[in-house]
Specification:
Length: 167
Amino acid sequence: MSLSNIMTGTPKWAWILLIFLIVRGIIALKDREVKVYRLFLLPLVFLFLGVSDVIKELAFPVWGAIAMFGGLMIGVGVGWLLWHAIPRLKIKQGTDLIILPGTPLTLTFILIAFVIKFILIVFLKVEPDLKYAFDFNLLFGLLSGLTDGVFWGGTLNLYITFRKNPN
């Protein structure tokens, strides 16, 4: 299967999702005012996509989910450490908004997560028998959890430290 076939064979919704995620990542480069619940949007999107892919793409979804949970825990730790160095959330006085500091980490990990997931799905399309390979099921789940966990770790780092000291 050629690169051209892979690119043209990719569903349009995947490219639309990539554009949406890149736009979100570019927006995240600058400080912005958001409601607190918006912090959890990106981690929830990646969690939903990860879980749905583990369920529908793998022959051993339970083992894929267990590996995903393990990857999620590792990713939370990595994300926590990476986002530890960025400025903290602040309350925008007189509103129910917070000021979310800009960081290139979000765009970087959006791209990493998309590329990893894209490659895994391409492997499954090019070599369908991988669906039945136990090791591949574990790797698929682990990488899905790891990439989502980084977003959860960063979000939880910002949110928990904000809740402890809201300024």
